[in-house]
Design brief:
Length: 478
């Protein structure tokens, strides 16, 4: 089995430009992929809401260590590092790449996502796991939804039950988060502290100027479906504003609402909703209602500031509080100038999952980290109150959704958690495949050329997509 897995890991070449704040960032449909910079690595400290919760005691005793004295954690940015540093009882910072939990040294192996470097490095480490010295073995590593199956469907990831974690301990998590890291045999192989339902995040000042109100219910009525979205985009255009920064911004919304998985057996499938995204994006771009540049670049980020004249972005909680320049004076977020509403369709974007590496010599500590960071309600509530993340615990989120004292400073004091909770309950991961990251990236690359006028027809761009996809995955068919 290992030989087969070795071949899978070595032959799988994922699309470049994927990054994460709390999860995957969408690739841009522009002809050139943006530089993939992990936005959470420089994440601003979120303002603590009015409500306060008791944080877990920092002096809590660490679990008994196994024989291992070094805990190696592989990640693509510092988001999970900041979570563990701030919320795991007894964690001590030693320096920028090292920490301590009891008598165990925590070694952070952080490789940015550019050019698929993180997965390439992780593959090397996992392939060497059997022969590695005890202190060099990977103990815990992080994955994103777009490529989780690549790792969960191998024996490099430990079943959660083998760590001693029970179904009862997992009962409060959102079911979709477990579906992402459940292998093809129905075995759960990881756990996440966060949920990532998405919303439409809009500029309050622009809303008041163009629509006469910034109330979420009123704005939702203007953007309740894609027809109304286009009508409102026209109103914004007349006033000198772009409805969104780029056609890339809506890709996850359309893709999440596709009925077909990317692959059926070995056959590549293009869902009608993806074609609709292309058609609608082409109309938006041709009308001048938005641009076509890649996400995360300087052009795309301009809308984080008033002079950028961008009405809305689509994203989950991590985008709101970690990526929209909340710590920069003069930004819309810094002044609490955004608000959130559901938008035309529900969707999710990203997420980070913790997996235990088979062969770890710190299984007890890995299990305790999973329990504390993804299942302990006190820790999870502390994460929401201090970081404004949406956590993977239904009772905690429902409590705070109904708490009038909970406020998100970036959203001008709005409590958006009810819409996030509703969105999390509706996420369906049935269409997840091992090919998602590469295919959605190739699709956007090819269709970005069409949207930008480099292909005369959709069918020509579709041929280019198949060419790119079959080069990447020669075992697939069209």
């Amino acid at each position: 089995m290992r030989k087969k897995i070795l071949g899978v890991l070595l032959s799988t070449t994922m699309v470049a430009g994927m990054l994460s704040a709390c999860g995957s960032a969408a690739e841009a449909p522009a002809t050139e992929a943006p530089a993939a910079e992990a936005p959470a690595a420089e994440a601003p400290a979120a303002e603590t809401p009015a409500a306060e919760a008791e944080a877990p005691a920092a002096e809590a005793e660490a679990p008994a260590a196994d024989e291992g004295k070094v805990l190696n954690i592989s990640a693509w940015n510092e988001e999970f590092k900041s979570r563990l540093t701030d919320h795991y009882p007894g964690y001590e910072v030693v320096d920028g790449t090292t920490g301590k939990i009891g008598d165990v040294t925590v070694n952070w192996l952080i490789t940015p996502n550019e050019e698929n470097a993180y997965q390439n490095r992780l593959d090397e480490l996992l392939l060497a796991q059997d022969s590695a010295a005890a202190d060099d073995k990977i103990d815990l590593f992080l994955v994103e939804a777009d490529y989780a199956v690549k790792y969960t469907d191998t024996d490099y990831t430990m079943p959660i039950k083998d760590l001693g974690i029970t179904d009862d301990e997992l009962k409060d998590q959102y079911s979709y988060t477990q579906a992402v890291v459940t292998d093809s045999n129905g075995v759960l192989k990881g756990s996440s502290w966060q949920g990532c339902p998405g919303v439409m995040i809009y500029n309050r000042a622009i809303a008041k100027e163009v629509f006469g109100t910034d109330e979420p219910a009123d704005i939702q009525a203007k953007f309740a479906d894609w027809d109304k979205f286009f009508e409102s985009a026209g109103e914004l255009d007349k006033a000198g504003y772009d409805v969104i920064s780029s056609t890339a911004d809506t890709f996850r919304v359309y893709q999440n609402n596709a009925k077909l998985p990317w692959v059926n057996g070995t056959q590549i499938q293009v869902d009608d909703n993806l074609k609709k995204w292309v058609e609608d994006s082409k109309k938006l771009a041709d009308a001048g209602y938005c641009n076509t540049w890649g996400q995360w670049g300087e052009d795309w980020n301009k809308g984080f500031y008033p002079e950028g004249k961008v009405f809305a972005y689509f994203g989950p909680a991590w985008l709101i509080d970690f990526c929209m320049a909340a710590d920069v004076e003069g930004s819309v977020a810094h002044d609490g100038g955004w608000a959130a509403t559901e938008g035309p369709q529900g969707f999710y974007w990203g997420g980070t999952w913790i997996c235990a590496a088979t062969g770890t010599d710190n299984a007890n500590l890995v299990a305790d980290i999973m329990r504390k960071m993804t299942m302990d309600p006190a820790v999870m509530k502390d994460i929401v109150l201090k970081d404004n993340d949406f956590v993977n615990n239904r009772p905690v989120m429902e409590e705070l959704a109904n708490d009038p004292s909970y406020q998100n400073a970036v959203l001008g004091g709005q409590n958006p958690l009810k819409m996030f909770c509703a969105g999390a309950d509706n996420i369906d991961m049935a269409n997840l495949t091992a090919y998602d990251q590469g295919l959605l990236g190739d699709f956007q690359t090819a269709m970005g050329d069409y949207i930008n006028g480099n292909y005369a027809t959709y069918d020509e761009a579709l041929e280019q997509f198949y060419t790119l996809a079959l080069q990447r995955y020669p075992e697939l068919t069209r």
